[in-house]
Amino acid sequence: MIHRGVAGPVPLRGARRRAGVAAALVALLTGTLSLYVADRAGGADPSRCERFAAASVERAREVSGSGARVVVIGDSWSVGLGLRSPAASWPSRLPGSIRVAGFSGSGFSERASDCGRVSFADRAPAALAGGADLVVVEGGLNDYDQSDAAITSGFVRLVRELDGHRVVVVGPASAPSRAADVPHVDALLAELAGEYDVAYVRTDDLALTYLDDRLHLTPAGHRAFGDAVAARVAAVSGRPAA
């Protein structure tokens, strides 16, 4: 079971500690993601997977804010795919010292991505290496074509990896290109969150602005999504992250 007791903020002790934690996370992600991409599933585009891995590492270098340690595990929205400045992706709107462990195309299910072992559960151990007072898991859009069994299996694995941490799962928004599949994925994730006693935040009601691909957010969309998630995480957890 996920521990849902609300721990008080644990501020980082100086820039040196923050830099050390960030460097450790980047080192772990670099090594781990290199293995993942090398072991990618058949049919994946090597250059695409390598770009995603490099973007993941670069985003992990950007630690924003101060206060309680918040780790965001997510997909391309967390990484900031399509943004001129990926560091401005939606997690930067959250309160606290924010570290992002994202990978474009990944999701709850093992095969949401064809770039290897990059599901949320696979990446959780490296993401938590520097410690966390709050873990925010954002995703579901890449699970749109996965079976209920695959999503459930990945969710259960994730819960086990995050055991003992304060966790909030943020469900998928209604990106136009996948809007038809969002209600089912959202309902399944909400049901699983209830079953495993994990706080869940719905975002399918948000009116957001998207890039031409109708899947990824504009800069304004990231700001709106991040602000809404920050408010809703505070509401379900009973207090802000920092």
Lay out the secondary structure.
Elements: H1 15-38, H2 46-61, E1 69-74, H3 76-79, E2 97-102, H4 120-127, E3 134-138, H5 148-161, E4 167-170, H6 182-195, E5 199-201, H7 219-237
Parallel strand pairs: 1-2, 1-3, 3-4, 4-5
Give a brief description:
41% of the residues lie in helices and 10% in strands. The protein is of the alpha/beta class.
Radius of gyration: 16 Å
The run of helices and strands is HHEHEHEHEHEH
CATH architecture: 3-Layer(aba) Sandwich
Q: Specify the CATH class.
A: Alpha Beta
Query: Ends: how far apart?
Result: 24 Å
- Total of domains: 1
CATH fold description: Rossmann fold
For the record, what is the CATH homologous superfamily label? SGNH hydrolase
Explain what you see.
The chain has 242 residues and is α/β, with parallel strands linked by helices. It has one domain: SGNH hydrolase (Rossmann fold, 3-Layer(aba) Sandwich). 41% of the residues lie in helices and 10% in strands. The chain is built from 7 helices and 5 strands. It has helices at residues 15-38, 46-61, 76-79, 120-127, 148-161, 182-195, 219-237; strands at residues 69-74, 97-102, 134-138, 167-170, 199-201. Strands 2-1-3-4-5 form a 5-stranded parallel β-sheet, with helices on both faces. Helix 6 links the parallel strand 4 and strand 5 (199-201). The two termini are 24 Å apart. Residues 3-24 and 34-42 have low confidence and may be disordered. This is SGNH hydrolase-type esterase domain-containing protein. Pfam families: Lipase_GDSL_2 (PF13472). Residues 72-224 form the SGNH hydrolase-type esterase domain. It comes from Nocardioides koreensis.
